[in-house]
Design brief:
Helix content: 25-40%
Structural class: alpha+beta
Radius of gyration: 21 Å
Largest sheet: 4 strands, antiparallel
Strand content: 25-35%
Distance between the termini: 44 Å
């Protein structure tokens, strides 16, 4: 094998390794920056949350009630923020009156 061909293969392999490593790291990062999440406080309205984070990727409506082992629950609204080709997402939770309560970061 010629030294120029061998060198080109080594460079290509290293380049692909770097690109794949960066994609893996990016795929596990939250879709919203921690600085933006720090601006959220319990008691904020849904419009305040939307102004800070932007529109959610998915909305899971609340209001449905259900019973588990004799305990009665009311499903609360939840917004989900994700990023393409990422294995992580942020869920934003609201109480039954539409007021922000908390958020959580999850990975698959």
């Amino acid at each position: 094998m010629k030294s120029g061909t061998r060198r080109a293969r080594i460079v290509a392999t290293l380049g692909m390794t770097v690109i794949i490593s960066l994609l893996v790291v990016r795929s596990l990062q939250p879709p919203i920056s921690p600085a933006k999440l720090a601006l959220l406080h319990p008691g904020m309205s849904a419009s305040d949350v939307r102004q800070i984070l932007g529109p959610p990727d998915q909305i899971f409506p609340g209001g449905k009630s259900y019973t588990v082992k004799g305990r009665h629950y009311i499903k609360r609204e939840q917004w989900s923020y994700a990023r393409r080709f990422a294995f992580a997402y942020i869920n934003v939770h609201f109480d039954t009156s539409g007021v922000f309560t908390h958020h959580n970061f999850e990975t698959f």
